[in-house]
Amino acid sequence: MDNKAALERIHTEIIGKDLFRVLRERHGTQFDSFISEKVTPIIGDVSLINLGLTDNDSDSHKDVNAIIHSAAITKFEERYDLALGINTFGARNIVGFAQTCPNLEILIDVSTAYVCGKKTGLIPETLYNMGESDGGIKGFDVNTEKKLVDNTLLDLTIKGASSKEIRDTMKQLGLKRAKFYGWPNTYVFTKAMGEMLIHEHKGNLPLVIARPTMISSTYKEPFPGWIEGLGSLANVSILHGKGYVNLINGDGNTIIDSIPVDMVANSIVTAMVANAYKPCLKIYHVCSSLRNPLFLGKVLDIHYQYFAKSPWYKGQGTLVKPKKIRLVKS
Fold it and tell me: Is residue 311 reached through a cis peptide bond, with omega within 30 degrees of 0 on the bond before it?
């Protein structure tokens, strides 16, 4: 990727989104110049040491005051090699880069509350120690996982495996390793390992780890209802509205912990200000279930009421009448 491609990506994938509508209306024809004064893309790759930055970018370290690390692969069943490179060693590489920034005031790592795996009850705001597995299995080591991935890829290459075979094998390997050590999927497993590497290499960095739960659409800012892509709740809502889902295996009293994305952003900014210049580690769970729990049964009732008032229309204008979803406990 060159600088031109990086600028195009900023405009098409970020600034060009409807999220920036309010700023675009406020600044009118001056919007582009307003953004260019504040946003400059730098070509890099978090999966590489020093983020893949060239010698030409070395002086930029001196100008860095704050780092927010939110780069991640969030698919639950992603290829193990890709998720390990971004979610796990990407966190390690960010810490390494941060340690070269002499004027750094704060580093924020955006993790996930689900690194806790299958734990229940109150979850402590502490980090996993290196080698500590959620299932209590001994012998767990992040570097061993990296060697396993590298050796598996090498074997597949030697055997002349197709791209599909490599992709499927890497996905299966990630799930297998995650479940063996007690995590439900590749995403949270690799994020947990990323926290382990942060813990091991952080030194005296002013560091905050934010652990949001399921991120949902904006509550208020810059306007209600915006979200990038579809989250788990949105998928269920759409399938319900289209008449594809009438039965769910679940308990209506189950708490669905969801937090609006603007609240997550505000919590990150607040954590930056509160912990700048402090050579210590702070962990914040960014969630809602303790003070404002949302129950699965309530969520499904809201979906039903919405589509009863604003039904979905199929092709040729055929009305889809929603039905109440039945919950069946396993």
Answer: no
Distance CA 213, CA 191 (A): 13
Active site residue 278: no
Tokens of 69: 């690390």
Closest residue by Cα to residue 281 from 203, 217, 189, 214:
203
The residue from 80, 191, 202, 284 that is catalytic is: 191
Task: Supply the pLDDT for residue 57.
Answer: 60
According to DSSP, residue 255 is labeled: B
Q: What is the pTM of this model?
A: 0.91
The whole domain housing 90 covers 66-106+115-201
Q: pLDDT tens-digit profile of 10-49?
A: 989 999 999 999 999 999 999 999 999 999 888 899 999 9
DSSP conformation class of 106: E
**CA 221 to CA 22: how far, in whole Å?**
10
**Pseudo-torsion of CA 15, 48, 164, 238, nearest 10°?**
-30
142 falls within a domain: yes
Segment 109-146, tens digit of pLDDT: 999 999 998 888 888 898 888 888 877 787 789 999 99
Q: Is 181 a catalytic residue?
A: no
30 token code pair: 């001056």
Q: Where are the extended beta strands (E) located within 19-105?
A: 66-69
Gap between the Cα atoms of 19 and 230, Å rounded = 15
Evaluate whether 194 touches 111 at the Cβ level (below 8 Å).
yes
| Listed residue (301, 287, 87, 280) closest to 194, CA to CA | 87
The reply to whether 193 falls in a domain is yes
Q: Domain count for the chain, please give it.
A: 1
Nearest 5°: phi and psi at 68?
Answer: -115, 115
Phi and psi torsions of 214, nearest 5°: -70, 115
Q: How far is it, in rounded angstroms, from Cα 156 to Cα 149?
A: 11
* Three-class secondary structure of residue 68 per DSSP: strand
Residue 243 is given by DSSP the state T
Domain assignment present for residue 186? The answer is yes
Active-site residue identified among 80, 128, 181, 187: 187
